[in-house]
Structure formats: C-alpha cells, structure tokens
Specification:
Rossmann fold
Length: 220
C-alpha cells in the first residue's frame, strides 16, 4: 500500500482497523474477510481511482461499509464523494468513519439510488447528477444501470466493479444499456501487475436518456 498510495497509507490502515473491529461487530464485514481486507477490499477498491477524471463528483451506490467510496475519498482528495446507502445502521457507521478518518471530501447520503434521480424526491444531501457513479457487487449489470445511469451527467461514467463473468454479464445487458442511452462500454482489468487478484470493472459512458434506433458505439 505504501508503494501504491504512500500519502494515503496511514488513513487506509486506520480504515482497515475500523472495518476489522466495528465493521465486524456491526455485521458490515464478515469475520472471514478480516484476514484479506487489504487484498480483497481496500486495494481492490483503491485502483478504481485510475478510471476517474480529476475533480469529479462521485456517487458510490449501495456503499455498505464504505467500499469503494471511503477508499476513493482517501486516495483521491480531489474527488467529492457521496456515500449512498439506505440502511440506518450502515449510515451510522459511515458517519462515524467519515469523521474519524477526516474525510472532508465525503458525505453520507441516506437514500436509495432511485430517490436521487433528478425530478424525483431528493434525499437530503443528494446532488445528482454526478460525474461518476460507482458501485461494487450491488446488483446484476442491467438492473444496476437502471439505477446508476440516470444519476450520471451526459458523457459521465458509470463504473461497476464485477467478477470473472463481467464480459458475459455485459454482453447480456447490451440491449438494456442501449435503451438507457449508454454510448460505449468496456471491461477493464486494473492492477494486473500489482494485485494478487486484479480488479475487474465495467465502465459505461452515459449519453442522453433516450430510446430508439440511435447508433451506439461499443469498445472491446
């Protein structure tokens, strides 16, 4: 971690300690995950920042224990990160974590993603649309895109952290993505030469929310 993010190592270590203690006691992190917090969770999330443009506003949908949102806020102080989570016990933990870690560039938004869609009821603190909307293991890609793309500025990014079947899931979701106005999509492998298990991310460029025969361009 010191090699990848030397300026953030101390606060990331403090977050790891918090997850291993309070996060486990409150049921946000399983006890079996504690020995692999760094490889499977913190480093896995940290490299997502490589896809995020400078000075972006970022929403982490269904952030749970703050993954990847708190990690992104720590390693990228130029970002403004909204930690979107509907469950009170989780937002209570997130509020405490943000204060303890000094994440002045992060805010906790207690809401469902669909509550933040412009034109619908806004949750306190919600500032949609965002430059980047990220998520980690929240829902199948097509369903997830229905929540995330409406929260993304035109030309902005939806970033979905996925597993080994990302290519297949993306292929199965192409019609849904087109209907939602997505303009291009790509599967990335991050940290291939640095992490024990690289991070797989599906990136989707948001276009205008439109349906019809407009041409969509796909990257592979």
């Amino acid at each position: 971690m010191e090699k990848l993010y030397p300026g953030a190592a101390e606060r990331l270590a403090a977050f790891a300690d918090l997850l291993a203690t309070e996060g486990t006691l409150r049921g946000l992190i399983g006890p079996r995950e504690v020995p692999r917090l760094w490889d499977r969770h913190l480093l896995n999330c940290a490299v997502l920042e490589r896809l995020i443009p400078e000075e972006s506003s970022v929403a982490d949908i269904g952030t749970g224990a703050g993954l990847p949102g708190i990690v992104l806020a720590i390693v990228r102080p130029d970002l403004q990160v909204a930690l979107v989570e509907p469950l009170l016990r989780r937002t209570t933990f997130l509020d405490e974590a943000v204060e303890l870690l000094g994440c002045t560039n992060a805010e906790v938004v207690r809401a469902r993603a669909e509550d933040l869609i412009p034109g619908r009821r806004s949750a306190p603190g919600g500032k949609a649309p965002y430059d980047v909307v990220a998520s980690r293991a929240v829902a199948p890609l097509g369903k997830l895109a229905g929540w995330c793309l409406p929260l993304t500025v035109e030309g902005g990014l939806m970033l979905a952290m996925k597993g080994a079947t990302a290519e297949e899931e993306l292929a199965a979701s192409e019609e849904e993505l087109e209907a939602l106005g997505a303009e291009e999509w790509h599967v990335h492998q991050l940290g291939v030469d640095e992490l024990a298990q690289p991070t797989t991310v599906v990136s989707i460029v948001a276009g205008r929310a439109a349906r019809g025969s407009q041409h969509r361009r796909r990257e592979r």
